[in-house]
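Example 3.2
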Amino acid sequence: MDGWVRWAAPNIGQSFKYQLGVQFAPYGDKKGMNYPGSLVKVIAYEQKFMDDSTVIKDETGGRGSTFSI
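Structure, written as tokens:
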């Protein structure tokens, strides 16, 4: 899958040192686009692993206004 890192922030007290926000390239059937079936997997992983303890909610970034699927 193609995409870009849009932000990074310290992930204090967690098993991973940093938390990243990414923006994926568009999904579709045209050349240069991500395979649409990949989006289904991304959503499934987000639902499985994301919870309130893994989201940064202060001015350093976070999910709210920076990135959504």
